[in-house]
Amino acid sequence: MEGAVLHVITSIKAGGAENHLLALAGSQARAGTAVAVAYLKDGAELATEFAARGIETACLGLKHYGDPIPAMRLARLISRRAPAVIHAHMPPAELYVRAALLMRLDSRTPLVISRHNTERFFDGPMELSIARFVARRANRVIAISRAVEGDTLARGLVAPSCIDVIPYGIDPAPFRIRNPQYRAGLRSRWGFTPDDFVVGAIARLAPQKGLDVLLEAFASAASRSERHLRLAVVGEGPLGPALSAQARALGRDGSVVWLGRQPPADVPSILAAFDLFALPSRYEGLGLVLLEALAAGIPIVASRVGPIPEIIRDGTTGMLVPPDDPEALAQAIVAAAAGRAVQDADAARLDLEARFSIEAMHSATLRCYDAATAART
Q1: Per-residue pLDDT for the chain (377 aa), expressed as one digit of tens each?
Q2: Which of 2, 119, 199, 310 has the most CB atoms within 10 Å of its CB?
Q3: In degrees, to the nearest 5, what angle opens at C-alpha 181 toward C-alphas 178 and 182?
Q4: Looking at the 3D structure of the chain, how many domains does it have?
Q5: What Å distances lie between residue 295 and 85, 145, 209, 318, CA to CA?
Q6: Helix, strand and coil percent figures for the chain, each rounded to 5
Q7: What is the dihedral of CA 27, 33, 34, 37, to 10 degrees?
Q8: pTM of whole model > 0.85?
Q9: Chain centroid offset of residue 12 CA
Q10: Are 160 and 192 in a shared domain?
Q11: Segments forming the whole domain that contains residue 146
């Protein structure tokens, strides 16, 4: 594909989709493509990271959903940059791209949409109609997993011939660095001893992530394990107070450390300080943090939902348990603390290299862009 790419996303506040976009846009810029990123709202948390890769970012200044000003700004940005492809990420951004193209009476510019999860545009009437209205302007739709592809097709958003499955890709190198002294120092700052078995989670404190299930499972596991278990939770979100109250009610608040939001650059060191990584999600789009945990080479336990079995091979590269099943999760934690965790590092490395590399993601996305361009000619 020749020409510039304009990515549009809801925010560039660090998260799974946002970190994915950083990796994708960075690979495109390294290949010599002119890349820009427009985002609807929130702070410019990753702007410096994009700039370091030679990628311009522009905030569209969304104040509330339904505000037409960002669509007008985006329409002007499209006119000024004349991108060869527009690539939209996340439902709000998809909708504003569609509105901007309508304002320009633009039916020619190739549009690609990435579906990062199975979440709806909103909860309410006409949601499906709006989702179909937006998706059917797209020349290609990228699903980041087979599970997301299945949801997209089941909802009738696009025809099967118009969808590509392209998983996230990561650079595993930063996650493979080992510094025992830094690991020991980090655990000490958290108040843990060298003998503690540390269960870690990196997730939004939201219902989707099932951290309430993790707390119940952790309390149960701690009462029956021969090891001294500790739990470290990285993230922020609306359930913070409720989860803290739950830990107190379970009598385990002294064993749980709430680390809040941490810089993305610190994630490799944080993962290296865990003895077990847990992701008890109720649903997922892909789970970028699982790829990071695989790259870090630490034992993993996660829910058997959505695309997670596409990433974690149960009994080979990790342990999978049913969602909303604290007893099954507790048993997995106890097993891991006793040294019976599943962790085939060679298989995880091969999976990352074959299926989740940045190079594979970049090449597949380029083919998708070419198909989108061909559809408009």
Answers
A1: 678 999 999 999 888 899 999 999 999 999 999 999 999 998 888 999 999 999 999 999 999 888 999 999 999 999 999 999 999 999 999 999 999 999 999 989 999 999 998 888 888 888 999 999 999 899 999 999 999 999 999 999 999 999 999 999 999 999 988 888 999 999 999 999 999 999 999 999 999 999 999 999 999 999 999 999 999 999 999 999 999 999 999 999 899 999 999 988 899 999 999 999 999 999 888 788 999 999 999 999 999 998 899 899 999 999 999 999 999 999 999 999 999 988 888 888 888 888 899 999 999 999 999 999 998 76
A2: 199
A3: 70
A4: 2
A5: 32, 19, 21, 12
A6: 45, 15, 35
A7: -40
A8: yes
A9: 12
A10: no
A11: 5-169+357-375
CATH code, domain carrying 266:
3.40.50.2000
Is the domain of 251 the same as that of 362?
no
**Burial annotation 218-238 (CB, 10 A radius, 16+ → b, else e):** bbbbbeebebebbbbbbbbee
Of 196, 259, 203, the residue nearest 229 (C-alpha): 196
CA distances (Å), origin 332, targets 254, 296, 322: 22, 19, 11
* Element housing 231 (H / E): strand 229-234
Q: Which amino acid is at 88?
A: A
Tokens standing for 341? 């965790």
SS3 state at 60: coil
Do 39 and 81 fall into the same domain? yes
Question: Are 158 and 152 within 8 A, CB to CB?
Answer: yes
